[in-house]
Amino acid sequence: MHLFNGSPDLLTEKKIDTDYQIDPMVFGVKIADKINLFDMYYNAEKLVWQNWSQTQPPFIIPKEKAFNDLIIPTNDSIRHNYFLHQNVSNHMHALFCGPTGTGKSINVSN
Predict the structure, then answer these.
(1) d(CA 55, CA 84)
(2) Which of 29, 30, 39, 67 is the least buried, fewest Cβ under 10 Å from its Cβ?
(3) Does residue 81 sit within a domain?
(4) Which domain holds residue 74?
(5) 57 falls in which pLDDT band (50, 70, 90)?
(6) Nearest 5°: CA angle at 36, between 42 and 86?
């Protein structure tokens, strides 16, 4: 089994996405055309592919928060937090690496 997590550059992401969609019946269900595999989460209970944003309640901006304190959930941050939680709850180590300003510290401390 392969696990991909992170934020690869767009060319690498497209290559991985294309390679893994050669067999459209991964898990017995087709991934819709023109959907990036990195944006998708396989819901084993419902047997469907979902966008990562569908795994969270809608984001509502708290009125009392300052602009610079807002953490807006994205597909990447939701995916990173999911795998971080999976690793921690299974007593596995996790390493977040990447360029400055990509949300590593925010995701880990959130």
Answers:
(1) 15
(2) 67
(3) yes
(4) 10-109
(5) very high
(6) 40
Number of independent structural domains in the chain: 1
Handedness of CA 62, 63, 68, 69 (dihedral sign): negative
Length of the chain: 110
pLDDT score for 14: 67
pLDDT of residue 32: 64
Residue 102 lies in a domain: yes
DSSP string, 35-104: --GGGEEEETTTTEEEEGGGGSPPP---TTS-GGG-----HHHHHHHHHHHHHHHTT-------STTSSH
**pLDDT the model gives residue 56:** 92
Q: How many Cβ atoms sit within 10 Å of the Cβ of residue 53?
A: 14
Which amino acid appears at position 33 of this protein?
D
